[in-house]
Amino acid sequence: MPTLKEVIVESHDDIEIWSSIIIWESPRKELIIQLEFIDYDNHERDHSIYATIDPDEATTMARNLHIDPDSVPRAIFERFGDTSNTTVPSKVEATFQEILNFILDCGARYRLKYD
Asked: SS3 of 99, please?
């Protein structure tokens, strides 16, 4: 059963396209950063992208950030989080790319999966 760790950002709820980034932990202790995109006018455009960080890679990130591995989701939220719910979907997608670059800058790797 996945465990939600942090909601990083969500776009405004009252527009026809909605997007969010969340971080959760898989049963195998991987960190999953999920970008979700929903087009309420055309659900054929709905999609999710998952960046999976293995436990060893999360430890590498934590070491480079001088924090405990369990604190990596919080560190990502503190750097990229936005709880205003006024963000537009394109900004959410740009934030996802910034997070991926941040992971690499911390010396860690991730795997992408598209759904």
From this structure: helix
